Amino acid sequence: MQLKISHWLFLCLLVAIFLVPAQVRLVHAQTTQQTPVPQQTPVTEDQINVIARELWCPLCSGVRLDACELKACDQMRQEIGLKLAAGDDLEAIKTYFVAQYGPQVLGEPPRAGFNWLAWILPFVVLLAGALFLVMRGRKLLFVKPGPTALPTVGPTVASNQDEPYVRRLEEELKRYD
Amino acid sequence: MIFDVGYLILVTALLLAVFGVIAGFWGGRQRHPSLVDSSFHAVYAVAALVLLAASILWYGLLTDKFQVNYVWNHSEKALPTFYKFSALWGGQAGSLLFWTLILSVYSVIVATMFRRKQLGQMPFVNAVLLITSGFFLTLLVFAENPFKQSGFLPPDGQGLNPLLQNYWMVIHPVMLYTGYVGLAVPFAFAMGALFSKNLGNQWVRTVRRWTLIPWVFLGAGILMGSQWAYMELGWGGYWAWDPVENASFLPWLTATAFLHSIIIQERRGILKVWNVALIACTYFLVILGTFTTRSGIIESVHSFARSSVGIYFLVFLSISIITFLWLLFDRLPLLRSENEIDSVSSRESAFLVNNWLFTGLAFSTLWGTFFPMFSEILTGRRISVNAPWFNKVNGPLFLLLLLMMGVGPLLGWRRTSAEVMRKQFTWPVLGAVLFAGIFAYFSPRLYPTIGLSVCVLVIGTIIQEFVRGVIARRAVTNENPVAALFSLTRRNGQRYGGYIVHLAIVMIGVAVIGNTFYQSTTNVNLRKDQSVSLAGYTLTFTGLESEHTSNRTEFSAHVAVFGPKGQSLGTVSPGRNIYDKTPDQPTSEVGLRMSPGDDIYVVLNGWQDDGSSATFTIFINPLTVWMWIGGIVLVLGTLICIWPNPARKEERMPAQAGALADTAA
Amino acid sequence: MTDNLSLTGDIPTVGPDENQTVAPANRRVTIWRLIIIGLIIVFVGFLVVGLERTNKSDWRASGVAPDFTFTTFDGKTIHLADLKGKGVVLNFWASWCEPCRDEAKLLEQAWQREKGNNIVFLGLDYLDQEHAAQAYLKEFGITYASGPDIQSAAARQYGITGVPETFFIGPDGTVKGYLLKQLTSEAELTGYIDAIRPQ
Lengths: 177, 665, 199
Hints:
The complex is a heterotrimer of chains A (177), B (665) and C (199). Chain A has helices at 2-34, 45-52, 71-85, 90-101, 116-141, 163-174. Chain A has 177 residues and is an all-alpha fold. In chain A, helix 2 (45-52) packs across helix 3. Chain C starts with 22 loop residues before the first helix and ends with a helix. At the A-B interface, helix 1, helix 2, helix 5 and helix 6 of A face helix 13, helix 14, helix 15, helix 16 and strand 1 of B.
């Protein structure tokens, strides 16, 4: 019973870890598709900034293009405006800037080649850590309780609804009282 | 002349630090009383000399001694006195001196408090702290002399970096350094314990408190830095996962992990090796972070100019890691666990998962910070790792951490049965599910719905803990609820202060979710008296004014804000400061109206000189104010944690009179 | 271990079974220690390499001008290695750079003068935007070969820290001189060009 609960807990955590980024990508992809592509209407600053928020200034480190005040960034935003007017979408514009300035305008490593490591390693390390914990946890699961162990708190002991809780709290407070 | 003396003082301080290190180790090992005393005296003397050196530099800054290169580079005649004072930490050499000064102050406090206590380990503690001071003094003496003179007197200085001429930028580094540098203290205690083999519970208590103090300063410093970024940088956000920001965040993460796992050690006597390793990692991350910001190895907006100090840092870092590992491996038998974990669903396991997540986060943050360097060395291509990567990789981990914050405290020490679990979780989970349903109906977005529901879950568990604690307390003492709440918090500050800190973290989490997912923005050019609408608010540009102060011209636009029903909500005044010395580097002053619901955040981008029109970027940032409220609550909660427990004092009383009196009541 | 334990306040908690460690467990511990130490060495090694790189660029050690290829705005492909035997003036510029504007005229005039003397002028456009760059070339009437430095490939090899920067490459393919700031006078420029003039 104990073993199952513990395994479920860990399984849930692990599934969550891998699902959540997948969800982010999904949401991300949706917003991408929703970006309106104006054909003939003049491009507004706000439309440009929607794109610029996805790009990073290649001259500065860690400044988003829509917030960058360099003249170079201003010109990049104008370039986005021209591309939008020509009917390009976010992906096309991103591809263009990557070709011009390199992947550093993306603000994240491209998911290709060596740079996959950037994405994978944190999760590999986390998984390894989790595996280590689960294995050790199992090994230690039925080890004799320590010399100071108290009887296990279980439902059979609990006659009053809150009694185990009160006892636990008192046990903790007693250390100071 | 006096500046030559300043340099000599630094040299003397370095020599004394070296002497103190030798005295500490030698005296600690041989238990030689006069050498042990010498180590204390060295701590005091080094601190006095460093303070003197800093005072001389302050004197130079305040009296415009531009023949000193540092003063010339970081000050000017017209600089307001306040900023002349803060220019001490505005540049490389000065901030290294400031670092050393804060470390010296910490060392003196520790030496004074433990002058008669824990004498077995104190000489080693002194020695380790002096090694760190000595390292920074080495930098000051050999690589970055703050008193270097140019041999002639320039008429005026270059001026302080305009970005640093801001109120927040004056106190934020002080807070941050106080936290950052202070983390050397628990490391020194850990090393002292290892050296002297005093690895009992006393060590744990001392280190816990001495970690909490720098930890709260570091947390407050990071939040103040965010506040500065939010108010000054004008991009509507507060945290960019910049390498320098990460450098301050990394030790915070490992220190937080330590603060949790030390609780298990205190209660159950397990994880001793792990805890020592965590606190050492925290210290190494502090040194690594300082290295990152000082050497120019990683590009960042906040970096100091490139300099030669990098190699010193690497040598020091390598030597200290090797020494630590050698010592740790040697003392492993002394760090054996007294108990073992007997069930995976009990609270210990929750703490383990907490540590797993915190170290995982620290690893991924470290990895992301240095990955551009790895990638460039190995592939030759330059990439950047900014917010998008961190949000995708760290975001889910933070969410899990938030979830664990709700789950962990509800699990009992040792086994928790299914029945007890059900009782513990029913109300918070119901509350969270109910909230998720309602929220998703109004705003059907997956990620914020999950995030905010988890926040509700955590708040639910915290309230439940307080309510049950009060009920339990009243059952024993018959106090009224308020008195019960008060005495509960006071008697078990560690636990309930911890819950308040958790509450603060939830507030910050809520702010992050609001700002990330519900921000709206527009970029407009407004003629005078023209309006724009955004997210229900209407903003009208009413005029522009300018004023020349000592070293800059301040331009500010006035924008009247009206609510959804047309009611006036006052005026915001976004501005720009143009500095006389650096006119091409104008700084931005955001016009801000904060409210619990959302912030109206206006940036002035440009204007017609006659004030007839101006360009603005306007952001509506929902819930962002909770980040700063959370910061205040964080400090309060930590204060409750550190506040001396009334019962602790009674422990020292004879015959447990206090305990008897309490049972009688 | 000469430490005197009896004098200390706390008695260290030495496990009773300290001497019972078995050989396989010992080996596993050793492996773990080696892994930890190895990882730290690798990390510090990377830091050392990274630090080296920030402090100097490759060519400054050897003096050989790094080779590069670029395509000019009018579609011609230029390879530095093909220009051996000629003196090359390599100027990094950008349309958003104010000092570049000040030196543009100077460069074009020098190009007109030196065209016939086996001197080649190359303009590499650093992190620039196509339309703005075209307008810039038109504005200053620049006629020497100029094109975008795609993905800053050349800029990084030359380790430039900003624009404008000008490198003077001799007929033998080595860097004879460089200017990491704006050109100020014709005399200055001529001085540098004299150093790379083919004999």
